[in-house]
Amino acid sequence: MMASHIVKPDTRNCKRPRELEPQMPDSPQLSSLGKSDSSFLESSGLFYKESLEKDLNDMSKEINLMLSTYAKILSTMESTHQKKATFGKRERLPCIAPLLTTVEETPQMVSARVRGHFPKWLSGYLLRIGPGKFEFGKDKYNHWFDGMALLHQFRIEKGTVTYRSKFLQSDTYKANSVHDRIVISEFGTLALPDPCKNVFERFMSKFELPAITDNTNVNYVRYKGDYYVSTETNFMNKVDIKTLEKTEKVDWSKFIAVNGATAHPHYDPDGTAYNMGNSYGLHGSCYNIIRVPPENVDLGETIHGAQVICSIASAERMKPSYYHSFGMTRNYIIFIEQPLKMNLWKIVTSRIRGKAFSSGISWEPQYNTRFHVVDKHTGQLLPGMYYSKPFVTFHQINAFEDQGCVVIDLCCQDDGRSLEVYQLQNLRKAGEGLDQVYNSVGRSFPRRFVLPLHVSLNDPEGENLSPLSYSSASAVKQADGKIWCSYENLHPEDLEEEGGVEFPQINYGQFSGKKYRFFYGCGFRHLVGDSLIKVDVVNKTLTIWREDGFYPSEPVFVPAPGTSEEDGGVILSAVITPDQNENNFLLVLDAKNFEELGRAEVPVQMPYGFHGTFVTI
């Protein structure tokens, strides 16, 4: 177990010192050549010959010295390049297959053994969700994202902790259970035709529209005070957070013209929720911004009153971008259109082609990434055309407004092929095979982009339009009117040693959409999180908690009552291990110093999951 403070300046963007740059030495001999007078040559031929030989000899020495210096520079550059190319590679990673295998649910409450203490003021439910069942009968899922949703509940009250878990009783789960095989396709697994049908019926079934899964295994979300579990299809499942029972299935498309919505909505202080979802039609693909009112008008409502406030046309009609989340400030929605493309034709024909939906998603770095900014009050899309080099982001950290700019912080990867890597056969490997998988995955690092909102025709080209003195992120107007955005790294180099960071969380209730200093996430020195990290984005320092052989989940910040300090509270994380001789546990850290306050050990096997939330009792 370790909590360490790492304070190092970030020197990667420093220019190379002039003494390291190859420069031609000043050479009076070179400048003197050609200046000899012809009359002097006629009268002093022998002297000229000797002088010329001396000059050439001296010049040869200087050239050799220059070439030697240049060779050293090239050698240094090559060595540095190779170091960067191989930096972060790891060997002899422990096998984590037990964290990604089917477990039994624990529907009855189990009392946890508390070591240390949980603060008396901490009272509520830590709710988490993720895949927990990876096969039905002889059929097995291919991708981590495909597993059946398992709901977890840690109940904390007066220093005691209990645990329970239940499989979500979705229609998909029930159908698969009844038939004892995979009946409904998931992200990375194609459901095969019913083996009881004859050859002709099985062939014709390939041309039927595939059923859409309601296996909502990604996150808990809140609308109008009610809790739902969500994925990225058009279905959500409303749940009773006390019993973990499903109470209702909700279809977004029954309320607004969208074909799905993200599992990462944003919330205004009054409870108004914003989300994004795609729609597909004859005129192409659109990214839609959704607003859901904060309260129910009538008893029994779900997302009644939801409306699309803005539709953004996809850059490519049949190849919209895949996105997992978006940013929001007090006044704006920020959507990132990234070159991780969904080929709609491939997705629609996946069943005919005998391929999973995931086969229709591809990383296309020949395209740049674009930022769209929308006024969330009027629904107006701002005219600014903001672009950056290609990157992919799954989780935004925070966004805020300052001096006429939108500042958005994201966990970014330069290689968008990581979705392909999370096949279960890869995650369950051991030895060199596991090392190769890990070292092929792009790392995720926190970056800041600055988007100036009020760009005019009179603004100069080629100059940084960002007025923010505290950020090195730039926004440069180009001749075609586009704004080219370059990021600022929000971390020290030490984060590379931690495998980057993902699953970012902040003090959302008090600092979402505002200027902030801290965020929390998981370090990834393995294919799942193996540490908890507190990042100070102002001083660019890290504080780390790690315990060898244990794998913490997404950190959830819970503010202490009566404090306005940004890090005044605790961090909760479910920590699991593949070691059957050790217990999994719920960890509580002091958010200020990242020191462990206590842990609640539970003798129950748990798989590694995705997201969750804390609900105060």
UniProtKB/TrEMBL annotation:
UniProt KW Plastid keyword: no
Main enzyme class: oxidoreductase
Compositionally biased intervals (Basic and acidic residues): 7-21
Region (Disordered): 1-37
EC number: 1.13.11.71
Subcellular location: Mitochondrion
Catalytic reaction annotation: all-trans-10'-apo-beta-carotenal + O2 = beta-ionone + 4,9-dimethyldodeca-2,4,6,8,10-pentaenedial; lutein + O2 = (3R,6R)-hydroxy-alpha-ionone + (3R)-3-hydroxy-10'-apo-beta-carotenal; all-trans-zeaxanthin + 2 O2 = 4,9-dimethyldodeca-2,4,6,8,10-pentaenedial + 2 (3R)-hydroxy-beta-ionone; (3R,6R)-3-hydroxy-10'-apo-alpha-carotenal + O2 = (3R,6R)-hydroxy-alpha-ionone + 4,9-dimethyldodeca-2,4,6,8,10-pentaenedial
Keyword Iron: yes
MF annotations from Gene Ontology: beta,beta-carotene-9',10'-cleaving oxygenase activity; beta-carotene 15,15'-dioxygenase activity; carotenoid dioxygenase activity; metal ion binding
Family matches, as Pfam families: RPE65, TEX12
Residue ranges, compositional bias (Polar residues): 26-37
Residues that coordinate or bind Fe cation: H264, H324, H395, H611
An annotated GO cellular component: mitochondrion
CC cofactor: Fe(2+)
Function of the protein: Broad specificity mitochondrial dioxygenase that mediates the asymmetric oxidative cleavage of carotenoids. Cleaves carotenes (pure hydrocarbon carotenoids) such as all-trans-beta-carotene and lycopene as well as xanthophylls (oxygenated carotenoids) such as zeaxanthin, lutein and beta-cryptoxanthin at both the 9,10 and the 9',10' carbon-carbon double bond. Through its function in carotenoids metabolism regulates oxidative stress and the production of important signaling molecules.
The protein's name in its UniProt record: Carotenoid-cleaving dioxygenase, mitochondrial
The species this protein was found in: Callorhinus ursinus
